[in-house]
Amino acid sequence: MPAYSVNERDHSKFQSDLNNICGDFDVVTHNQKDRFCGDISYNSVAGLDFAIVNQNAQRIIRTQQAVTNDQRSNYFLIFQHEGQSIVSQNNLKACLTPGEMFLMNPSQPLAIDYAGQHSKQISFHIAEEEILPHFGNISQNSLYLNKANRFVRGMNNIVPSLLETHITTKNEHNINQAFNGLLGLALEEAQTHLLSHETNETGLLQLAQDYMEQNSCNPEMSVALIAEELGLSMRKLQRLFKGTKLTPSQYLLHRRLENVCRQLIVKQEQKTDKTVSQIAYETGFNDLSYFNRAFKSKYGIAPGKWNS
After folding, report:
1. For the structural domain made of 3-197, what CATH number should be given?
2. Are domains 3-197 and 201-305 of this chain identical in fold?
3. 149-163 pLDDT per residue, tens
4. Domain 201-305 is of which CATH architecture?
């Protein structure tokens, strides 16, 4: 992907391309110290219109004002191809992992959170007149289509075919028929099981844990910041961790202490001159007194004597 710096002209071009291809959406990027990468392409294959969107924004949103101003009424079937995202619309919040989908209602505001991580999504544009006659009341809802839906598994076999460079006319017809047929069946099954009112608690927890793991060395990382980055309330984040028997703060502390232990093993094996204090700072601690107390509380020994 080409690299776009925040607030530079190329970032504006990405925003413009997104609006031209997908409609009125706003791209929320990182702070000035980071780099934003993104590209978007429009494709029409086998009678299916779709955009391929690669980017690492914080989030992409569609406000109520945008809904009012945008004259297009396409439904968007978002297919998560790479990375993860949290899609929120109405009362539905779903964590999309590769192979899962979300049907976006064009008449409602939407937010997709990426936490600044790389994501590749394929957004299928489906005309409203194609949705309403075939799917009835289900078209009034947003729909999360996960891998438990057996027809979604079939869709996962079709999507790679759309990305092939050369597709014969016969194959285009077969792909189109299979795509529309499986989509209808997937939506029907989703309606039967009322997936539009469920949340993907396990997926959200995994996303939060992955984010903590990737950012645990940042001393500024806090539970409040994690909740903000993932688009969750503090209460929601606390509830997600209830089944782990740890609070989010405890989970983050344990990850940092485990990273310290790994560094101490490397120090011993490679006989490096790195001090315990340096290791503590590198793994996200900014208070040595707190670090020493936390380490001894967890392992029953001072960090300087650990594994000696």
Report:
1. 2.60.120.10
2. no
3. 777 888 888 888 888
4. Orthogonal Bundle (1.10)
CB-based burial label for 80 (10 Å; 0-12, 13-18, 19+): buried
**Minimal CA–CA distance to 167: which of 46, 48, 47, 50?**
46
Residue 63's closest CA among 118, 23, 122?
23
Do 126 and 73 form a contact (C-beta atoms < 8 A)?
no
Give per-residue pLDDT as tens, 80-131: 999 999 999 887 888 899 999 998 888 889 999 998 889 999 999 988 776 6
Work out the end-to-end distance of the chain between its first and last CA atoms, rounded to an integer number of angstroms.
47
Tell which phi-psi region holds residue 168, choosing left (phi > 0), alpha (psi between -120 and 50) or beta. beta
Nearest to 179 by CA among 136, 125, 119: 125
Would you say the pTM of this structure is higher than 0.70? no
| Angle CA 148–152–155, to nearest 5 | 155
Query: What residues does each domain of the chain span?
Result: 3-197, 201-305
Residue type, 148: A
Tens of pLDDT, residues 128-137: 776 655 555 4
